[in-house]
Amino acid sequence: MGALVAALELLRNELLLFAGIGLLIGGLDDLLVDLIYAVRRIWRSLTVYRRIPRMTARDLPPPGAAGPIAIFVPAWDEAAVIGQMLRGCLDKWQRDDMQIFVGAYPNDGSTIEAVTDVAARYGGGRVTLIINDRAGPTTKADCLNQLWRALRRWEVAQGRAAIAVVLHDAEDVVHPDALRLLGLLAPRFALVQLPVLPLVSARSRWVAGHYCDEFAEAHGKSMLVREALGAALPSAGVGCAFNRTALGRIAAERDDLPFDAASLTEDYELGLRLGEDGGRGVLARMRDDAGELIATREYFPDTLPAAVRQKARWTIGIALAGWDRMGWAGRWRERWMRLRDRRAALAALVLFAAYMGLVLGMVAYGGALLLGRPPAGWPPPLPALLAATTMLLVWRIIVRILFVWRAYGLLEALLSVPRGIIANIIAMMAARRAVMLYLRYLRGARLVWDKTSHRFPGSSRQMTR
C-alpha cells in the first residue's frame, strides 16, 4: 500500500509539473492579449473618441444605398429552421438591395419544400434556390461553391455585380441594420465580420451557455487584438461579408471555386487566404438606435454530444488540418495568432493532465492518511509554478466575467465561472474525437458535412439579451 501511494504521489507530481508549465505558457499568452486590448482601448478612448463620436446605426447610409449584396445560405437537412430564417431576412432587409441564394440537395426534399414555399409566398424574386447536382451531404464549402456559380449567372442576367458576399447559416437571427453596416464597409475591406452572439438557451444553461462565454470574449476582445496587430482575420462563417472583388481573385486562382471543398473550416481558411492575398479584415462592432449590438445571433448546440461534435470539427479544420493546409506564412504577428488558433489539441492534453493530477493528488492524500503518515510534500518547482498558474487563472476568470457581463448581463457572467469546467470537459472530449477523425481522414476517409441539428427562436424576445 505504501509503495502504491508513493507511486501515485510521483505520478501526481509529474502530471502537475507538465500541466503547470503548459498552463503558465498559455496563461502568459492570454495575458499579453489582454494587455494589448487594454492599451488599445485606453489609447482610442483618449485620442480617437475624444475627437470623433462613436458611430451608431443612425449614422449609417439608408437601406438600399449600397448593393447589390449576395446572401449565401448553405442548407442540408434544415427544414425545421430555414423557413423562419428566410422570413426573418426578408422582413428585416426588405428595403436593402440584396439577393438570397440558398443551397440545397436533391435528396433533401423537406428543405427544398420549405425554401420554395417562402420564395413563392414572401420572396418577391429575392430568394434563389440552387439544388446541388450531387446528393447530400457533400461539404459546406462545396455547397457554397454552387452558390458562387449561381451568383455569377445572376450577375450576368442582371447586368450588375454584387459588392459583397455575405455568409449565413440556416439558423441565424439577423439584425435589421446588418446589411447597412456590411454594405458600408465591404467596399473598403476584404472581409467584414459582425460579432456573433450565441442566444441564451433556457434549456441548456451549461452546455449551450459556454458558447456565450467564449464568443463574448473572442468577438469582444481577441478578434480586435488580431485586427490591431495586422494579422489576418478569420471568418466566423456567419454574419461576415467578403468583398466581391477580393473573393473573385481567390476564385480565379482555384478554377472559379473560392471555397475549398476539401476543408471542414472553409470560412476560417478563406479569411486567412484573403489576408495572405493582401486583403484586410475588420471586426465591425456598432450599436443600433436602442443600444443593442449589431450582431448575428443563433442557438448553439445544447447537448454534450452535439457540442463535442462541433468542437471536434473546428479542431480538425483549424488545429490539425489547418496546420498542414495553411502552414505558418506571414510575419511574427500572423504566426503568433495562428499558433493561438492551433493550440486547442495541446491545450486539451494540458487540461487532462491537470485534472488527472488533481484526482491522483486527492487519492494519494487519502491513502497517506489511511497509512497514518503525512502526505509527501511538493518537489521544489511545483509550489511556485502552481502559485503562478493560480494567479493567472484568477485573472482569466475575472476577464471572462467582465466580457460576459458586458454582452449578457450579471447572471450569465457569474454562471461563466462554473461553466468553465463544462467548457474544459467539452474541449478534452472534442480533442480526442478530432484526433481520431483526423487519422481516418489521413487514411482516405471521405469528407462530409458533419453538422449538428439547429433550432430557431420562437419569438423576438428570445433574440435579445
Task: Spell out the blueprint of helices and strands.
Elements lengths: L1 H45 L1 H4 L17 E6 L7 H11 L5 E7 L4 H15 L3 E5 L8 H19 L5 E4 L10 H8 L5 E3 L2 E3 L8 H23 L10 E4 H9 L13 H11 L4 E3 L12 E3 L5 H23 L5 H10 L2 H28 L9 H28 L1 H33 L23
Helix pairs in contact: 1-7, 1-12, 1-13, 3-4, 7-13, 7-14, 9-10, 10-14, 12-14, 13-14
Average pLDDT metric: 90
- The helix fraction, in percent, is 55-70%
Straight-line N-to-C gap: 55 Å
Helical segment count: 14
CATH topology grouping of the domain at 62-303: Spore Coat Polysaccharide Biosynthesis Protein SpsA, Chain A
Instruction: List unreliable stretches of 5+ residues.
Output: 459-465
- What topology, given as strand order, has the largest sheet? 3-2-1-4-7-5-8
Named at the architecture level, the CATH assignment of the domain at 62-303 is: Alpha-Beta Complex
Strand count, sense and barrel status of the largest sheet are: 7 strands, mixed
Q: What gross morphology would you assign? A: globular
Annotation, overall tally of beta strands: 9
**CATH homologous superfamily heading of the domain at 62-303:** Spore Coat Polysaccharide Biosynthesis Protein SpsA, Chain A
